[in-house]
Every structure is written in C-alpha cells, then in structure tokens.
C-alpha cells in the first residue's frame, strides 16, 4: 500500500498546521494551562522538583506541578528565548500535527479509507470539538488526546503480524507505544490514563480475546507483546506515580470544592457525547471562544452532529460512491465506541437510572475521575475512522488537471461524487470553522505583562525591603487574574515573586480552614461588609503572618472581584488605616504596596514566633472570626492574642484544657457556598433540612465541627421553604444573605425574602405547619410595590382551596387577609404579579379562633454543649456577611452577669441592641438568667462579657506587657510553649529543635504551630533561640525527589531500550530478516491466510459472520447499556429498533412469498420500496440520528430557557439510542469486524 502522504506531503501538512497555529491571535499570549510556562518556565520547573513550597499562598503542596517536567514544561523552557506567544503557537502546531499524523498512520495500519478520506478524517480528529475547546485554554488536556493514536499504533501493527513475529519486532512495537505513553506527560494523571484506554481495548479485543482461524497465534502474540509493553508502560509512568501518591496522601481535598459530578456530567446527553462537546466549562463561560461557539451555536451543533452521523454510517458499513463493504475491525471500533458511550451515558443526568450512584462515587472515592470528558477519544476516534471508511469509496477527477476540471468540477451536477465531496467539504469546514476563523485563542490575550508588575515584584524580592521575612497579601481578591490589559488566569505575580505571598482566588490549594481564614480577612475590606471599621485589622493580619499588602487596580469586573476602591479606603481613610503605611507605588498607581505596622508600629514581627500555650485563648468558632475577635479585644483594651479553636484542642488537653475562660462565637455557621465565586458566594444561615443549590459534595468549607454542632436555623412550629431566594449562592450577581427565607419571618421590615435570579412571577413561599389549622389569616407586606398573590392551602398533598389577594407594598399599611376556610397544614404564597422589588418583607399566620400566631419560626441558634461552652467567659456574635440585623439565640447554663459591647460602641457612637426584646446600651451590665436568650443588633458585632473574663484578661495583659506573640525576655519558661508559623497546617510536615521532634498544633484555626514541652531538652532554649533552631521539613520530600530521580532513570532506560531495539531491528531487516519481520513494515500488507484475513493497505476485507454467541452477547450488551443510560425507555427504544430491523425483512419475505404464489406479477409499489430501503440498518440509523440532530439544532444550550435545552430532552436521547442500536445491528448481522474480534 502506498503511504497516504509522501515526505513532501508530510512537510506540507506540517507547514499547514504551523500556519493555522500562527494565525490564531498573532502577538497575543493567552492563558493556556499555566502562566508560569511563558513567564518563567525554568523557575516553574525548579519549583516542581519539591512537593512543598512556602512561597505560594499560605504554604502548600503544588498540584501536579511535577507533571509539567516533561514534555510540556521542557518544551516551553527550551524555547524560552523566543517570544511567549510564538512558543505557545509552536506548541499548538506540534500538537495539531501529531493528532493529524497519528490518525493518518492508524488508518493506514488498519486499511481504512482512501488517501483523501484518511486526510479528511485526520483533520476532523485534529480539529475535533474536544481539541478545539481545550487547545487554547488548557492544551495539556488536548495533548493527551492528540497522542492517543500514537499509543495505539504499535499495538495495532503488532497484532496483525502473521505467524510468530520475532521478539525484537514485538519489543520495538511495545516499547514504542510505551515511549508514546511517556510523552503524554502527567499534568493530569487521569487524562494520561484515559489516553491509554483505547490501546488497551484494542489489545484485549484483537489479541487476548481474538476470534477466527488465527486467533491462537494472535493471542500468543498479544501476551508476548504485553511482556514488553507492561514493563515499558511502568517505566513510562513511574516518574509521576510516586509524586501523585504523595499529593493524594497529603493534599487538602480541593476536588470537593472545584467542581461536582453533577456539573461535570450535566452535558452528557448522547447528542453532546457523539459530537464531542462534553467539556462542561465551554457551556458556562464564553472565555473559550471556540468551545463556547461549538456548545451553543446551532450551525456548529448541526455540523458536528453531521460528522458524528457520518462516522456512525461508516461504522455500519456504508460507503459513499461504492458498493457497501465491511469496515475493517468494525467490531473492535464499535467496542471502543461502546465503552466511551458507557463512560459518559451512565454518569449523565437526567436520563440514567444509575447516574446518582455513579455521581456519588465520582464525588467520593472516584473524585479524580470526575472530569469524564477526558475520555472523549473513546468516542471520537472510532467516529473519524467511520468517516474515513464512508468517504473511502469516492472517486473524483483531480481538479488540478484540465480534463478533471472540465469533466467533473465544471459540471458537478453530472458527477454525484463531486457533489458529495463538495458537501463533505462544507460540513467539515463548518465543524472546524472555529479554527480557521481564528477563535482558538481564549478571550483577552495580552501583548505582555505590564512593566509595573515586574517592578513591584522586584521591589518585594529585594531583601532590603523586608518582604522576604513576611507574607504579602494581594488584594482585592478575585476568582481569576483577569486584568484590563489581559487575562493571565494565574496571578501575574506568581511567576515573578520569590517571597511568600497569598491571594484569595477561586479555590486556593490549602486546607479549607485556611480558606475560611482568608475569607474572614478579605471581608474586612469589602464595601458590603466592614470596609475599614476594624481598628485592629492590622494586628489581625500580623497574627496571620501578613506583613505587606499589595493592592492592584487593574482587575476587570469579569474577574469576580469587589474592586480596589474598598481596599484603598480601608488602608488610607478608615479606622483601620493607622495600622498601614504605603511604602511603594508602581505604574500610574496600578500597583501600590502597604506595610502592615499594627499596634507596635513598623517593628512588628510576622516571622515564626513563640507563645506560651496557656496564653492561647480557647475559642469556639471558625477561622473566619479572628479579625472580629481582634476588634473585640481592642475594644476591651486587650492586646492581640492567638487562639486555639475548640475543634483543634489536643486530645490530651495540655494547657488549653478548657479550664480557662472560653470565648464563644456564632461561627462556623451552616451556610451554602458557591465555590465557583469569590464575591457573593455565601448564603444566609440555613436549617439542616433546607434545600441545596450547589452540587458539590459539601455545602461549605469544613472546619472539623460536626454539622449538628454548627450555628444553624432551628425550625419550630413547622417549616418555611421557597422556590428560590436571592440569598442562594448561585443567584446571578451573588448571594444577598438579607434576602433569604429567614428574612420573611424575622420581624425586620428592611429585610425580605426575595426570589432568586429571573422573573419573580410564579415564585413561591411555602409555610408548612406542624399541625393542621381550621381557619387562618395572613398578615403580609411586600418588600417593594404591592404583590398580586395566589394563596393556596393544602392538607398533606391535597389542595384545599385557593384565592387571589393583593399584598400591600412596603410603604403601605399592613392589612389582614383571610385565607380560605378548611383544615390546612400548608399555605403556599405564589407571586402572580409584581411591581418593583418583589418579595415578602413580613409574613405572619394567625389562627382566627384562638388569635394564636402559628407562623413557623426560624431562630438562629448558637450551640451550647461541650468544650466548656456551657459557661463561657464571653460571647462575641456578629455578621460575617451582611445580614442587616443580627439575630441569635444563646444558651446560658446559670445566671450570668454580662457587659454589652459592640463595634460601634468602640467607635464612640451611641448604639442600641436588644436582649430578649429589651433595649440595652453600650457598656450596660445585665444579668442573663439560665436558659435561652435572643440577641438582636444592627452592629457588625456585639459582645457579652462576664466579669470573670474581664478580670482574667486584665491579669494576663498585665503579665504579658504586650501581644501574646512576643516577649521582651529571652528567658526560658517552665510552661509548654508553641512556635507559631505563618504557613497552613499539613500532616506531612515535621519540625525539630536540636534533635527533638515537636508535636504539631493548629493555632488560629489553620496556622502551623509546634509544641515545645516544658520537660523536653529544647525547653531550656529562649524564645529567640527556639525560632533560630527550628527546622521544618516536609516528610515526603526525600521520597518525592528520589522517586523523580528513579523515574528519570527509568525513562532513560526505556528510551535507550527502544533505540537499541529499533537499531537492531533495522540491521536485521537490512541483513535479510524473516518474512514475518518484513511484513511488519507500515506499508506492507499482512501476509495472512483464510477467510478471516484483512489485507492491510487495501480497503478489501474477507470476513466471516459474527458467531451466534457474539451476536447474543452484543445484543444483550446493547440492551443493558441502553437501560443503564436511559432506564426502561432506553431498553424499549432498543427493542423497538430491533423489532423494526427484524420485522421489516420478515414482512418483505412474506409479501414476496405471497407474490410468488400469485398468478399476476406487479412491480413493488414505491412506498414499499422506500420502506424496505429506509429500514435497513444504516439508513434507519441515519433516520433516527437526523431526527435527533434536528431537535438538538432547534434548541441548543443557551438558545432560550435552560428548560428548553434539547440535550436534556428524552426524545433526542431515545432517537440517538435507536441510531446506535441500528449501527450495532448492522455490524453484528453483516459480520463486520475485519476478520478480527467483532
């Protein structure tokens, strides 16, 4: 067989792919995978040689950074002298060319298609929706897809060798496949493994479970091949497996927060799966221009579905322009496609009956596999093979000759093959249009990072400026670094800074407690929360190791950021401003740097420091509360102090055994968090039974406190539910905690339940009572203008009565509205018409006979059990996010005298709060009797302090003389001490002082502390000597680095073994090797015999029928898979399709028999002829497929209401099941399979 392309042809192809890459946003660097790859590749690779870094936010494990060592990172590092954008395009060009060339070679090896059809199929694979979607934004995932054919190719060739191939030839093939696996890299381990699955399936089907006359020989060949392939694969993967295990062992569970299986599998309808648009990010963001267009525009939906249907037709044996013929290895290609369909279909809601179980697995133990779109090659590769076969029979005159141009192309109506080629070109052009229209680049590429970022980084890196001994906080927070000058996604300073830094981005790769601590700090700068009202903010930052603040003003709104104005106001013109000093500015004030001075001025220390363990105040709360407690301490005249949270108290108690006064806060609270957002991401406080709106495995960042011990809503008298609310974390524009269902019954006119995103019409509020009531009235008031409301009463699930009423607006007088008579235990208020701001600011139900208020209550209760919470020294309650008015229920074990304080009291402004409905003033002392008490205040925080706590605190401060973090003397003490660092806790870290291993202690909820027992040898050291003698290590660093080194050696062994085997094979061939050896050349047909032979290099195959057992197994598999994908309807769709395919020929035979018996003969009517034709397997598959495609094109994602999206409709799903069933039927009944495993 002549090769598809000559050397000159390959050169031309490479040039075309290079040109295609170069025309994508020339001169623009884009946010592809990692900013460091272009900004500082060598530095990035150096960092990857160690698992732990103190430089990155709060100290952290690097997430699979080792995977960039080869080939991705090395490619960028070696080409670092070139312009950044050019290196990116060269990488893309290499990726596209390899994807193209791999498919061409694979089609040659399997004898599929003609020269033109192979090139067409290869282009469709290289520019498949999967690659178009990921190439510009995360090319590391596109890279693994591109190499799938290269991993498969040696497997395919080896299992076609006749007789007994030489060991050397099998070794070359097996090691060649292993080298391709090595080249996959390990940026994402699952993507790497997914790229190997098609090759493994081919090895199983064509080798281990081979059928046919030569099956025993091929099985032996398969196992001999595996004897080299498996060790080679181990050597190829060894370098990253160990680091991956270390990452899995010590990394925080960030996969619980970054996504959920409910989101990643939402677009797994068969229509999307077949066309290759399963990457969920493309449906949610327009940043990936190509992917978003493919996901949402009807033209691309039609074109990509047309390509998929063409591939299915080819798999079914259809061949344009030629007599129908078998696709070589159709059974194996169908097996690969079936596995791919199973991977996606079984996890896809809403059709699959097992989707919930599969998604639960993917959100639990199977979390690494959650992004199943990485298995796209299982579907798309068989489809492009089918395209190559479908078009392989076309024969058209060359348009490059005068005769061909005149005979065919000048009058295409006279040559159907030319028309077919033109249509094919149009469809392929439409399906790949995002590439040749220049949309591979994501939005907001940039020419270069502005110089002021480099200048700011240089200033911070200068040791004379003191940033090396502290941590720099970058503000304001942002989901991603999307600047006015371009989108880097990663922080632009990430590649520039050598000193520790921290930023609150989408999901920092640190423990969840540390993220909560970051949130607590950033809220202090937020315009919607504190914004500078905390005079102790600088001290709170210093306690958490932050000594510098970098403020950037170049973020765009699309970065999901509150903006820099609130930050700058806090730092320069607020009660907190005295603790900060501006020390540098760069650009046109685009980046400004402030030093954190704190109450001690510029001499404040943020490095490791020593505290007495008994000075750690035991606090019931979450890490987010620390700035509030610093403010409360400052208001009471106390110095800043460190804390140990009750959930972090060591099991042996130590000095922090709960006997000292305990501060109780109203954190952590049961809230729901939208992990995809940074601003407006937190709901109001919830009840345990409240519905969830996010799909992640956990509601909020955990703290180690059990859910039942969280501050949460206690429902009494019934429940209140709503169709949605503006406090839901998924609300457009962010959550408004003052607009949840709590607000409808909180007695505060300024707050209200408001519906979530979209029209308020038909949104509803349900009031479910704990027992039926016979006659009720409704007192309600709208949050804006009047509301027209339908009030419906229910008894259980039965509707009792309904009436329409007008609820007065916020400024109107409240009126009493009678509800319909009859026993009812639920009242639904549905909005039918609204004027202005729709919602209920107040809702109250009264039983008319008794006059009793029967409105369900939603009280926010602070737990009062365990860890000394029954008799705390003080309560500090507050609004972590703005609720407008704080409402809390606290429990007092015995009569307790307390003094009232608040943030406004500290600021000198008169303020009033309510305790059990009674007004109290700043500094007022009152006695709380044993039992529950309701606290209300519109201050940001309010404190209730006992005299014992005040006295104890005063004694401590007098003894300390300064903040608990410092000590004027270096004398050793007789108490246990804690060395406190500014990095996050990780169980993989260890510390020693002069050979003494120290016990890990968590301080301030997330900070790494090390306990120095009073009876240890290190106890004789002073505080300063302890800090100097402290040696911290990451336990697994040696194992990590040794594993990388061993992996490097293994990779070199693999490469040398492959090279040596290849050289030896070529020498053997030149010296006249065996016939079996010679037949393995890529351009040589397989010399095999018998009816089960496929002659590689031709499109001709002689095949035997699929045995009965194979047909039964295939049919059962299709039925089971369809039932798994779509339940009973899916199984019915299979049975109906099979019934048509079997029943119609039976009918045709019956009619023919009847006609034979008749004395008169008549031609078959055309309707019957059409019926016979359309009910053949391939035409029927296309009929079902086209019908499903029309529905998908009519209602693609984003074309209207999400409920109209055709991908979630049963009709297209069942039509595509019918289409696939017909394809399988065609293969099973016509013996397709290329004489191999069918």
From TrEMBL:
Compositional bias ranges of the Polar residues kind: 721-730
Keyword field: Membrane, Transmembrane, Transmembrane helix
Superkingdom of origin: Bacteria
Species in which this protein is naturally found: Candidatus Corynebacterium avicola
Ranges that cross the membrane: 90-107, 119-152, 172-205, 226-247, 298-318, 330-351, 377-396, 417-436, 1043-1065, 1086-1106, 1118-1144, 1178-1194, 1214-1233
Name by which UniProt lists this protein: DUF3367 domain-containing protein
Region feature Disordered, mapped onto this chain: 644-667, 718-743, 952-974
Composition bias, Acidic residues: 957-973
Composition bias type Low complexity, residue spans: 652-667
Domain Alpha-(1->3)-arabinofuranosyltransferase N-terminal GT-C, first and last residues per copy: 17-698
Pfam families registered for this protein in UniProt: GT-C_AftD
């Amino acid at each position: 067989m002549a090769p598809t392309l000559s050397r000159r042809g390959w050169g031309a192809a490479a040039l075309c792919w290079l040109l295609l890459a170069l025309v994508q946003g020339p001169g623009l660097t884009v946010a592809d995978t990692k900013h460091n790859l272009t900004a500082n590749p060598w530095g990035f690779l150096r960092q990857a040689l160690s698992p732990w870094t103190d430089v990155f936010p709060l100290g952290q494990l690097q997430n699979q950074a080792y995977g960039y060592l080869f080939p991705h990172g090395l490619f960028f590092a070696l080409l670092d002298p070139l312009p950044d954008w050019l290196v990116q395009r060269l990488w893309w060009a290499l990726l596209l060319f390899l994807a193209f060339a791999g498919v061409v070679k694979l089609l040659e090896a399997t004898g599929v298609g003609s020269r033109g059809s192979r090139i067409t199929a290869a282009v469709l694979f290289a520019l498949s929706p999967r690659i178009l979607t990921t190439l510009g934004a995360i090319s590391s995932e596109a890279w693994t897809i591109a190499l799938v054919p290269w991993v498969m190719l040696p497997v395919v060739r080896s299992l076609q060798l006749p007789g007994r191939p030489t060991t050397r030839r099998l070794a070359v093939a097996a090691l060649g496949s292993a080298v391709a696996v090595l080249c996959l890299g390990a940026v994402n381990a699952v993507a790497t493994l997914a790229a190997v699955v098609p090759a493994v399936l081919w090895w199983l089907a064509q080798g281990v479970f081979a059928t046919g006359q030569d099956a025993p020989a091929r099985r032996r060949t398969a196992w001999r091949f595996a004897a080299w392939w498996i060790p080679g694969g181990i050597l190829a993967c060894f370098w990253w497996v160990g680091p991956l295990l270390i990452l899995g062992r010590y990394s925080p569970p960030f996969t619980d927060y970054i996504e959920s299986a409910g989101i990643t599998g939402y677009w797994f309808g068969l229509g999307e799966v077949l066309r290759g648009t399963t990457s969920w990010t493309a449906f949610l963001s327009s940043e990936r221009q190509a992917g978003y267009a493919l996901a949402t525009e009807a033209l691309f939906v039609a074109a990509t579905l047309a390509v998929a249907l063409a591939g299915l037709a080819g798999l079914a044996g259809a061949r344009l322009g030629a007599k129908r013929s078998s696709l070589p290895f159709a059974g194996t290609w169908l097996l690969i496609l079936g596995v791919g369909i199973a991977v996606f279909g079984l996890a896809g809601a809403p059709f699959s009956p097992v989707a919930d179980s599969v998604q639960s697995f993917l959100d639990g133990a199977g979390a690494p596999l959650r992004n199943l779109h990485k298995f796209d090659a299982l579907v798309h590769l068989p489809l492009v093979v089918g395209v190559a076969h479908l078009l392989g029979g076309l024969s058209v005159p060359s348009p490059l000759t005068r005769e061909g141009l005149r005979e065919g192309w000048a009058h295409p109506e006279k040559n159907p093959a030319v028309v077919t080629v033109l249509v094919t070109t149009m469809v392929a052009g439409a399906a790949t249009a995002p590439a040749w229209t220049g949309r591979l680049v994501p939005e907001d590429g940039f020419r270069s990072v502005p110089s002021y970022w480099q200048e700011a980084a240089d200033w911070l890196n200068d040791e004379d400026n003191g940033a090396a001994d502290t941590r720099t906080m970058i503000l304001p927070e942002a989901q991603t670094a999307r600047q006015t000058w371009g989108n880097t996604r990663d922080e632009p300073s990430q590649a520039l800074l050598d000193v520790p830094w921290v930023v609150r981005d989408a999901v920092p790769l640190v423990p969840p407690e540390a993220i909560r601590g970051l949130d607590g700090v950033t809220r202090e700068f937020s315009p919607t929360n504190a914004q500078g009202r905390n005079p102790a903010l600088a001290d709170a930052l210093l306690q958490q190791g932050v000594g510098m603040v970098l403020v950037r003003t170049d973020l765009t709104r699309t970065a999901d950021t509150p903006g820099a104005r609130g930050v700058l106001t806090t730092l320069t013109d607020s009660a907190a401003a005295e603790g900060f000093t501006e020390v540098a500015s760069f650009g046109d004030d685009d980046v400004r740097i402030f030093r954190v001075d704190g109450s001690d001025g510029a001499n404040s220390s943020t490095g490791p420091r020593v505290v007495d363990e008994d000075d750690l105040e035991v606090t019931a709360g979450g890490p987010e509360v620390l700035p509030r407690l610093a403010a409360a301490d400052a208001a009471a005249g106390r110095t800043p102090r460190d804390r140990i949270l009750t959930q972090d108290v060591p099991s042996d108690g130590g000095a922090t055994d709960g006997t000292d006064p305990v501060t109780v806060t109203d954190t952590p609270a049961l809230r729901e968090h939208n992990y995809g957002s940074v601003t407006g991401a937190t709901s109001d406080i919830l009840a345990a039974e409240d519905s969830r709106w996010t799909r992640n495995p956990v509601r909020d960042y955990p703290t180690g406190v059990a859910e039942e011990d969280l501050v949460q809503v206690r429902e009494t008298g019934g429940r209140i539910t709503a169709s949605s609310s503006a406090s839901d974390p998924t609300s457009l524009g962010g959550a408004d905690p003052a607009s949840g269902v709590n607000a409808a019954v909180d007695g505060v006119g300024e707050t209200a339940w408001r519906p979530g995103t979209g029209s308020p019409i038909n949104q509803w509020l349900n009031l479910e009572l704990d027992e039926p009531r016979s006659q009720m009235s409704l007192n309600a008031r709208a949050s804006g203008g009047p509301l027209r409301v339908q009030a419906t009463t229910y008894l259980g699930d039965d509707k009792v009565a309904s009436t329409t009423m007008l609820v007065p607006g916020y400024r109107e007088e409240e009126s009493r509205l009678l509800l319909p008579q009859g026993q009812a235990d639920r009242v639904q208020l549905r909005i039918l018409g609204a004027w202005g701001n729709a919602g209920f600011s107040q809702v109250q139900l009264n039983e008319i006979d008794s006059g009793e208020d029967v409105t369900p209550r939603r009280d926010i209760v602070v737990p009062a059990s365990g860890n000394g919470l029954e008799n705390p020294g003080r309560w500090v309650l507050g609004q972590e996010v703005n609720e407008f008015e704080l409402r809390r229920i606290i429990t007092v074990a015995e009569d307790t005298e307390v003094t009232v304080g608040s943030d406004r009291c500290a600021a000198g402004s008169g303020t009033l709060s309510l305790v059990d409905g009674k007004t109290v003033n700043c500094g007022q002392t009152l006695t709380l009797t044993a039992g529950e008490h309701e606290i209300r205040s519109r201050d940001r925080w309010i404190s209730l302090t006992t005299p014992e706590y005040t006295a104890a605190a005063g004694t401590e401060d007098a003894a300390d003389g300064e903040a608990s973090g410092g000590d004027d003397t270096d004398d050793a003490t007789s108490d246990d001490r804690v060395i406190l660092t500014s990095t996050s806790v990780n169980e993989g870290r260890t510390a020693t002082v002069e050979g003494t291993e120290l016990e890990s202690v968590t301080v301030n909820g997330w900070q790494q502390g090390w306990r120095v027992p009073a009876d240890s040898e290190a106890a004789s050291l002073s505080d300063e000597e302890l800090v100097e003698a402290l040696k911290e290590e990451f336990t697994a660093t040696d194992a990590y680095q040794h594993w990388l080194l061993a992996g490097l050696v293994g990779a070199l062994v693999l490469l040398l073994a492959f090279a040596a085997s290849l050289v030896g094979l070529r020498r053997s061939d030149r010296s006249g090797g065996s016939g079996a050896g010679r037949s393995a050349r890529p351009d040589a047909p397989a010399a095999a015999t018998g009816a089960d032979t496929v002659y590689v290099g031709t499109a001709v195959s002689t095949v035997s029928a699929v045995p009965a057992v194979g047909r039964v197994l295939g049919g059962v598999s299709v039925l089971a898979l369809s039932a798994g994908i779509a339940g009973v309807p899916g199984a019915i769709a299979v049975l109906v399709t099979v019934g048509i395919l079997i029943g119609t020929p039976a009918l045709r035979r019956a009619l023919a028999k009847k006609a034979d018996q008749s004395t008169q003969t008549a031609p078959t009517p055309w309707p019957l002829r059409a019926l016979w034709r359309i009910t053949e397997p391939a035409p029927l598959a296309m009929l079902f497929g086209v019908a499903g495609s029309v529905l998908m094109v009519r209602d693609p994602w984003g074309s209207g209401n999400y409920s109209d999206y055709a991908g979630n409709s049963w009709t297209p799903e069942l039509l595509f099941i019918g289409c696939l069933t017909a394809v399988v039927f065609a293969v099973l009944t016509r013996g397709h399979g290329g004489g191999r495993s069918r």
